[in-house]
Design brief:
By secondary structure, this protein is an alpha/beta fold. Helices cover about 50% and strands about 10% of the residues. The chain folds into 3 domains: about 220 residues, Orthogonal Bundle (MetI-like fold), CATH 1.10.3720.10; about 270 residues, P-loop containing nucleotide triphosphate hydrolases (Rossmann fold, 3-Layer(aba) Sandwich), CATH 3.40.50; about 60 residues, no CATH class. Helix 25 links the parallel strand 8 and strand 9.
Length: about 700
């Protein structure tokens, strides 16, 4: 069975893409209006829209023309009766529909534009911009809406339609801006936005290509709500006589009915039609709201059909079995000595990463020194909170604004031998460097892929950001080549992320990372949440591509058993520090640090006698209050009094009978360990004095 067969079959079952992808793409939006409520709402709004557009052109009666037919009930001659001046109510309603609809929709458009500008800017840029715009938004939110509208309208006697539209838009944008800001804040740090930023896309493109489409449902719902509010506001102002009472609208009709005591005369036909029209248009717009998510979200759009199709196939689905999880096994011989043969492509020197929170500082990465050799895999393992992902984000310069790097170097050596410190790159240099020389595969593929863009489009975006000269045809060919390379059929180019299995989504992320043939790929737990069979397929795919294309990998994971098979070198992190670094073979055969032995003891062996899994007692320390001396001392089974007062350095492991040398070189081969059990006190003390 091919690498991607299981995933391909599993992903294809709940979708209809296999039948006719082009047809599904072309007519997929129709599924959003299959709800009866949505159809009813669309019909109501469409009827009013047609009346507003064509009604005044088809009605020959002047709504302002007076006659002797005073207060006549509805009849064949006057379909909705007449007013106190003999004016035709039907003609007034037709002309009034146009005014009310135009005011409602135009005011909603302007208010929505203001909401988008303020909400997106405040949420994405943050900082001072967010504070100022949020302050303005909050001021408009706390001011009562209708009284403010009345006051503003009152300053403009005989206000026309344009003035009413502006007043309504100015007073109606704040709520939508607040919602959009909150949504933007939640989206701007999502992995697919970080990936777009890392690939070099401009701020404008990120906002309008990555973030805004994911807020379309909110924007649409806000717009429809604002239309309802604007129509009601215009009707209220007209009813109070604050607008021109000669420009017919639903509110003006109600104004004249109220001032002429239509209720007293029993002239129900005068006030019922405009009131009923306001209620109907509000109902229609509200019903349309029910279908917005399904209309916009491709996952919800196909949910109903996919569920039915899955049920039909359920009876005929054949069972599938996969290989069991692999326990700890010896690393492949092919990796022996690989690190020693390659030259250093990335060297990290004494890197520190701090998280700032108010007046306190938390050091998440503390003095890390590592090296990655060309064409090899450097594995980084440790418990949650050990600093692995923070290190990955620091290498790619994607760390959050709350994080800063006070000291350290991250030196990249290009193929021509030129060395560059990534931490000293300008924004322009960093944009060119990412994806060209260094790419990242994020932890969760579903979060890293934009849910409303097809996977082919997302791969193209990474290419277009760095290869603007490539034609559209060349980009499509490259997308097909990349999908084939990672074991995905090219007919999945038009699929959305939710239409793929977890393994296929992770393969898409690998394809995006490989789009520009980088020298280094950082993989932050790329197999998280995948079952063991798919994990194995993904790992095999990564290794096959690495050998074929020659890139280097920094692989971060919790799964030490997998890392031993995969990596050439392994670094173990604890409390932000490297506590042991060794070749995969040496680490598997003789882990040196007590923490490393505890991690190894947490996994079963593949061969040999059975043993009890030991694990590690206790929990990782709070980085805000690390214990004195060795951070692992409260959990260490071999702790001494010296461990509780002295912090061990990461030093080469001495041979039997030899003292520990204080020289530390992250590029030199051999095992390095940060443990006082192996360190002679005198040279170590000298090294500590030099360090301080």
């Amino acid at each position: 069975m091919s690498t991607g067969t299981l995933e391909h079959d599993a992903a294809m079952q709940p979708t209809e893409a296999a039948a006719d992808p082009a047809r599904a793409t072309r007519f997929g939006w129709l599924r959003g209006i299959r709800s009866v409520k949505v159809i009813v709402g669309l019909v109501i709004v469409l009827v009013f829209a047609l009346v507003a557009i064509f009604g005044p052109l088809l009605v020959s009666t002047d709504p302002s023309a007076v006659s002797n037919d005073i207060l006549h009930a509805p009849s064949a001659h006057h379909l909705l009766g007449t007013s106190h001046n003999g004016q035709d109510i039907f003609a007034e309603m037709i002309y009034g529909t146009r005014v009310s609809m135009v005011v409602g929709f135009v005011a909603a458009i302007l208010a929505t534009i203001l909401s988008l500008v303020v909400g997106l800017t405040a949420g994405y840029l943050g900082g001072v911009s967010d504070e100022v715009l949020s302050l303005i938004t909050n001021i408009f939110l706390v001011i009562p809406g209708l009284p403010l509208v009345v006051i503003l309208t009152g300053t403009m006697p005989n206000a026309g339609e344009l003035a009413i539209v502006i007043v309504i838009a100015v007073t109606a944008w704040a709520w939508g801006a607040r919602v959009l800001r909150a949504q933007t804040l939640s989206l701007r740090k999502r992995d697919f936005v970080e990936a777009a930023r890392a690939s070099g896309e401009s701020t404008f493109r990120i906002i309008f290509r990555e973030i805004l489409p994911n807020e379309t449902a909110i924007v649409a719902a806000t717009f429809l709500s604002t239309v309802i509010g604007a129509i009601l506001t215009q009707a209220s102002l007209a009813f109070l006589g604050l607008t021109s009472v000669t420009d017919w609208s639903w509110g003006v009709i109600l104004y004249w009915a109220q001032t002429q005591n239509a209720m007293s005369y029993g002239a129900w036909w005068w006030f019922v039609p405009p009131g009923l029209s306001i209620a109907l248009i509000g109902t229609g717009l509200s019903l349309m709201n029910f279908g917005i998510d399904e209309f916009i979200n491709p996952r919800l759009r196909s949910a109903g059909i996919a569920t039915k199709r899955a049920r039909k196939r359920a009876a005929g689905t054949r069972s599938r079995t996969g290989r069991p999880a692999r326990p700890v096994a010896e690393p492949a011989a092919a990796g022996d000595g690989a690190a020693a043969r390659g030259d250093v492509v990335l060297e990290i020197k004494d890197l520190r990463v701090d998280y700032l929170s108010g007046d306190s500082t938390v050091r998440a990465v503390d003095g890390v020194s590592l090296s990655l050799r060309r064409g090899t895999v450097l594995g980084i393992a440790g418990e949650s909170g050990s600093g692995k992902s923070t290190l990955a984000y620091a290498i790619t310069r994607l760390h959050e604004s709350a994080a800063e790097i006070p000291t350290g170097q991250i030196l990249y050596t290009a193929a021509d031998g030129k060395r560059t410190d990534i931490l000293r790159m300008s924004d322009r240099e960093l944009t060119d460097f990412r994806w060209e020389e260094l790419a990242i595969v994020f932890q969760s593929a579903m979060n890293a892929l934009n849910p409303i863009l097809k996977i082919g489009v997302q791969i193209e975006d990474a290419i277009a950001a760095h290869r603007p000269s490539m034609s559209e045809r060349q980009r499509r060919e490259r997308v097909a080549e990349l999908l084939t390379m990672v074991g995905i059929s090219t007919d999945r180019t038009t699929a959305y992320p939710h239409e793929l299995s977890g393994g296929m989504r992770q393969r898409v992320m690998i394809a995006i990372a490989l789009a520009l043939n980088p020298e280094i790929i950082v993989m932050d737990e790329p197999t998280t949440a995948l079952d063991v069979v798919i994990q194995r397929q993904i790992i095999d795919q990564i290794m096959e591509l690495k050998d074929r294309l020659g890139f280097s990998v920094i692989f971060i994971t919790h799964d030490l058993s997998m890392l031993i098979e995969l990596a050439d070198e392994i670094a173990i992190m604890y409390a932000g520090r490297i506590v042991e670094q060794a070749s995969a073979q040496d680490f598997y055969r003789a882990p040196s640090h007590p923490y490393s032995r505890g991690l190894i003891g947490s996994f079963p062996t593949l061969s040999g006698s059975k043993r009890e899994l030991t694990g590690i007692v206790g929990s990782p320390p709070d980085l805000r209050a690390l214990p004195t001396g060795c951070s692992f001392s409260p959990r260490c089974p071999s702790v001494t009094d010296e461990c509780r007062v002295r912090e061990p350095l990461l030093l080469p492991l001495p041979r039997v009978g030899e003292p520990t040398t204080p020289a530390v070189d992250a590029t030199s081969p051999g095992t390095r360990v940060a443990c006082l059990l192996y360190q002679n006190s005198e040279p170590v003390a000298a090294a500590e004095a030099d360090r301080s």
